[in-house]
Amino acid sequence: MKISNFGDLVATGQTQSGRAQLRATEKGDLSVVTLGKFRRFFSAIGRNQAGRDSNRAGAQAYVAHVRQTKGFEAARFAEAALSHRIDKGKPVSMRKIQALESAWHTAVQATGTQGARAFQAADLVDAGEPVGLGSNNKIVKATFDNGTEVMTGALKPLGTSAGAVLLTGRDEDLGAETYVLDRNLASQRMAECLGVHVIAGGVPAQTAQGKPALLMELVHGDSVADRVDAGKEVLDGPELRRGLVGLQVVDILTGQIDRNLANIMLKRESGRDIPVGIDNDLSFVTAASVEELHTFVNREAKPVGMPVVLDQSMRQQIMRMTRHDLVAVMGPNLATAGRLEAAAARLSALQAHIASGAVMVIEDSAWQHPQVPHLLNQNADNYWHQAMHARPETT
Questions:
Q1: What is the pTM of this model?
Q2: 351 by DSSP, 3-state: which?
Q3: How high is the pLDDT of residue 186?
């Protein structure tokens, strides 16, 4: 049974017993299967790699469905709530979905009075397995439980962040504060404002020592750089094209100067590569600091130019964006005079580029058209070209 509406998940009679579990079809559609008691028991104790992959694909298809029907915030909530099951490849029952939907409605009501979601040091129940090593910070897999929500993600300490080291004294700031957490969360909000799910979701958190940290979405996949160095193929397709163009636009508007191929993850969903940008410490810099900081950072990051193709939804979101939207995206800590002027200049330049007719605008569903890769192949200053033509590093 294909699920075509979020309400169907709890409206079908078979879900009331909680016996039904999520599955993904070969095309990535969301489906529901009902298992008998014996099959559920056997599935639990005899889960092999294929079974874990199937469970993970079903959960990811569900998150994608929520993103399409309920929006990015609901999808991020669902992804966080299911993060432990996705990580372990555990099955997702319809009873779990019912509980998740109820928790989402509760969270929506509570957000207005209690503020944004966050995890404290006391909520940390497990941390240790390394999942990445940045220039100046160690990232580990961690699980937090605050009594109402459990989330497994990549915990990134911010006290010794590369962004903090490079930005101090070079970007417009108040004293020594560089607002690395704000830059990451603002980049996430920018992607949501544009309607592209290309920035790893994250919430404020703390390390076991109570130091500030960011708990990021745990992306199941590898970076473009790792994929290429391992001699593996980057799978081209409409999702990859739209995602990388969307990431290009986000980085233009946020002034991102550290988007090297190691900071573009490829999340495998139903046999397709979905790009996700990580490590957004060096975003929303002032215009004056961009050129200066490229000296320190851009030995790895490659410059990105204006887009040559957009879909109608992207174009509409960009052209309707205003200075007030930038203030809302950046938040009070980042929206200082210098940073806001720099962001507004980047937005005006992008809007003028689109208005000039230099961009081919396509239907939202037309990313598979052969003209799209033809256009993207004509210059090297876009992420799709960089990913598809990357070569292994030689030592």
A1: 0.76
A2: helix
A3: 94
